[in-house]
Amino acid sequence: ACEGSTVNFTNTSTIASGTITSNYWNFSNGNISQNTNPSELFSNEGIYSVNLIVTSNNSCTDTIATQLEIYPNPIANFNTTNVCDSFIAEIPIIRGYST
Questions:
Q1: What is the mean pLDDT of residues 4-25?
Q2: Which residues of 2-40 are buried (b: 16+ CB within 10 A; e: fewer)?
Q3: Cα–chain center distance at 4
Q4: Which helix (H) or strand (E) holds 26?
Q5: What letter would DSSP give residue 72?
Q6: pLDDT, position 81
Q7: What is the rounded average pLDDT for all residues in the chain?
């Protein structure tokens, strides 16, 4: 993803018996979420450690972490050169055109 992009996360956690009662996401950018499938805006380039802790109805927990790289945006730019300050543009006459 590029800096300034929102990243969507899909929680695919499962449990053999019981239910998952809570999700705790830490995006390592100062933000957290307790949504099952959160979206997060990453304003700056860098490598972020995204952590998910899930808890079951029996208070059992599991944690997974992965690295997410946010790439810098390119900076568009160009230069022009003035060939001649006294240049007069010639505008062609288009016959059969009416205004």
A1: 97
A2: eeeeeeebeeeeeeeeeebeebebbbbbeeebeeeebeb
A3: 6
A4: strand 20-26
A5: P
A6: 76
A7: 90
| One-letter amino acid of 5 | S
Q: Please state, in angstroms and rounded to a whole number, the distance separating the CA atoms of residues 84 and 10.
A: 59
User: How far is residue 61's CA from residue 46's CA, in Å, rounded to a whole number?
Assistant: 29
Model confidence over 30-51: pLDDT tens digits?
999 999 999 999 999 999 999 9
- DSSP label at 2? B
- Report residue 21 as tokens: 């009662």
pLDDT cut 70: percent of the chain above it: 82
Task: Give the residues across from 55 on adjacent strands.
Answer: 22, 61
Report the half-sphere exposure of 42 (CA within 13 A, side-chain side). Answer: 25
**CA 22 – CA 34 distance, rounded (Å):** 7
Q: Work out the burial of residue 54: count CB atoms within 10 Å of its CB; fewer than 13 is exposed, 13-18 middle, 19 or more buried.
A: buried
